[in-house]
Amino acid sequence: MKKSRIRGFTLIELVVVIVILGVLAVTAAPRFLNYQRDAHIARADAAFGAFANSVQLYQAKWLTQGEPETPVSYGSGTIYPSTPGYPMSVGSAPVDPTVGPIRGSDCVAMWNALMQVDLTIRPLTSTVLPSDTDIVSWYTSSNQCTYYYTTGYSDGEEMPLLLYSPLTGIIEKTTGRNNA
């Protein structure tokens, strides 16, 4: 009768395997941690792209309705156009659709009226970060709305930004720090 011999791992083999797994963990961990930042960037890109598409669709609808000075039926809320037909204010007519200015509440109201996403937004009060919302909105004296994507970012880090000018329809996706 043959005797079967069952062998296990030697201590040296076990140590070698643990060392190899440790090296793999050290080299792979930063790559996996970076996926979270990539996911936030992708979410910001998707939201900002949806906003840009909504602005373009609003302007297209404005053109097909004969360039009215009254609100165009698009999105939710009463969205008034600027002179070239881009969304400029919500709820009340713009101060002057030719030159502005944008009122402080207009940027947040436009985001909410044009977008149907699960991102939360608030106006800038004193600082962008820390923020308990996904988007922080700010308007500038140059008649431009700035939307900061804040989720997953700390103070001092570059974060995704969307710049929107209702007087020209120019939308720019970029990155930056809290400039307000």
Q: How many structural domains in the coordinates? A: 1
SSE string, helices as H and strands as E: HEEHEEEEE
Provide the structure class.
alpha+beta
- Beta-strand percentage? 15-25%
Can you list the strand order of the major beta sheet? 3-4-5-6-7
How far apart the termini lie comes to: 86 Å
Radius of gyration: 26 Å
Using the alpha-carbon principal axes, give the shape. Answer: elongated
Mind describing the biggest β-sheet? 5 strands, mixed
Provide a count of the helices.
2
User: What's the helical proportion of residues?
Assistant: 25-40%
- Residue windows where pLDDT falls under 50 for at least 5 positions: none
Average of per-residue pLDDT values = 86
Number of strands: 7
General description of the model:
The protein has helices spanning 11-64, 106-114; strands at 79-81, 87-90, 121-123, 135-140, 144-149, 159-164, 171-176. By secondary structure, it is of the alpha+beta class. The protein starts with 10 loop residues before the first helix and ends with a strand. 30% of the residues are buried.
